[in-house]
Design goal:
six-stranded antiparallel beta sheet; 2 domains; alpha+beta; 5 helices; six-stranded mixed beta sheet
C-alpha cells in the first residue's frame, strides 16, 4: 500500500450545529496512518514519512483490529505530567533519529493511538462512503486497549468546545456526518476550531544568560522568500536540559549576518543563526505590529525552514 496524504480540516472561528454535524476532540499529537496489507504493518505521518519503528506497540495490529487489510487514520498522543495530551512529550518519540533509542524512550513516553477514521477495509477503498458509515464500520473492527482508543463523537460541538477550553486543551474538529474522505485535500466538510493558536516558526537568533540560551528570536518567510522577525520567547515547556541542548545546537549555527529583513526588538544583545531549526509555537494572537503575542515553544519539529511561512492555517 502506498502512503496517502490525509484529509485535513479547514480552520473556523465558529462551531456549526445541527444533526448533520458531529464534534470530536482535536488531540495535541502527531497525525499517524496505519497501513496493513494482510501481511505487514507500516506507519506513516501526514507527510508520508515512515514511523513504523518509532511506535512498536502499534505494529501488532491483529491485537486491536479484526480487518484482513486496512488503512486507519488517527493521532498518536502522549500525556504530560498534568494528565493532558502534550505535544512536547509525543515529539520525544516522534523525533527519535537513532532508532536504537526507541526501546529506552518507549518506557519513559507511553503513547496512545487515537483512531478517528477508516479509509481502506478488506481490500476495498471506503473513502467515498459517508463519515457516519465509516465510523460505524471502524467501531466494529477496533478493540480499544492500553495503546489504542477510538475517538468519541459528540452531537453538541459548543458544549464539547466549552469543556476543552476549561481544561486548556487544543480544540475540536467538527465533521459533516455525510462527508466523504477527501484524500490529499483540505475540506470544509471538516472544520477545526482552536482554543489557542499555533504555527511552525524558524529560529533566526538567540540571547544568552550565563552562557545558556534564555530566549530565541522567531521568524516566518514571505512569498518572496524573505525572513521576517515575528517575536521572541523564553517561555514554554522546555526543561533546563532542553535549553542546554538548544544552546549547543544554536551555537553551531551562528553567523554574523542578520537573517531577518526587519530589525528585531532584541537585536542589541542577539546572536544570529542560520535559520535551520524549527519549532511549534503556541501564541494568543497577532499584534498590530505583526508579532506574536505571548508566544511559547511547545517542541522542536522536523519541518523544513522554507515551510515556515505566513498564512499557516493553524
Amino acid at each position: 500500500m502506498k502512503p496517502i496524504v490525509p484529509m485535513e480540516p479547514k480552520s473556523s472561528k465558529t462551531i456549526p450545529g445541527g444533526k448533520e454535524w458531529i464534534a470530536q476532540v482535536k488531540w495535541d499529537g502527531v497525525r499517524l496512518l496505519a497501513y496493513y496489507d494482510g501481511k505487514q504493518v507500516r506507519l506513516y505521518n501526514r507527510k508520508r514519512n515512515e514511523r513504523t519503528f518509532h511506535y512498536p506497540e502499534l505494529t501488532d495490529i491483529r491485537r486491536y483490529c479484526s480487518a484482513q487489510s486496512v488503512i486507519l487514520d488517527g493521532e498518536v498522543i502522549s500525556l504530560g505530567a498534568d494528565g493532558k495530551p502534550s505535544f512536547r512529550e509525543v515529539m520525544r518519540r516522534d523525533g527519535i533519529r537513532r532508532l536504537e533509542k526507541v526501546a529506552q524512550v518507549r518506557k519513559a513516553v507511553p503513547v496512545t493511538y487515537m483512531i478517528f477514521d477508516l479509509i481502506h477495509y478488506n481490500g476495498e477503498w471506503v473513502d467515498r462512503r459517508p463519515f457516519r458509515e465509516r465510523t460505524e464500520l471502524l467501531a466494529s473492527i477496533i478493540t480499544p486497549g492500553r495503546h489504542v482508543q477510538l475517538v468519541d463523537s459528540h452531537n453538541d460541538g459548543q458544549t464539547l468546545f466549552d469543556v476543552i477550553r476549561q481544561h486548556g486543551m487544543e480544540g475540536i474538529v467538527v465533521k459533516k456526518t455525510a462527508s466523504l474522505y477527501a484524500i490529499g485535500e483540505t475540506s470544509d466538510a471538516w472544520l477545526k476550531v482552536k482554543n489557542y493558536r499555533d504555527l511552525i516558526a524558524v529560529i533566526g537568533g538567540f540571547t544568552l544568560n550565563g552562557g545558556t540560551v534564555n530566549a530565541v528570536l522567531l521568524g516566518l518567510y514571505d512569498e518572496a522568500g524573505q525572513l521576517w522577525y515575528i517575536g521572541h520567547t523564553g517561555t514554554g515547556k522546555l526543561s533546563h536540559e532542553d535549553w542546554r541542548k538548544l544552546t549547543e545546537r544554536l551555537q553551531r549555527l551562528t553567523t554574523r549576518e542578520r537573517p531577518f529583513v526587519n530589525l528585531p526588538e532584541r537585536h542589541a544583545d542577539a546572536h544570529w543563526v542560520r535559520p535551520r531549526l524549527t519549532a511549534k509555537v503556541q501564541f494568543a494572537e497577532w499584534t498590530e505590529g505583526g508579532c506574536l503575542r505571548h508566544p511559547s515553544i511547545q517542541a522542536f519539529v522536523d519541518a523544513p525552514p522554507e515551510a515556515c511561512i505566513f498564512g499557516q492555517s493553524g
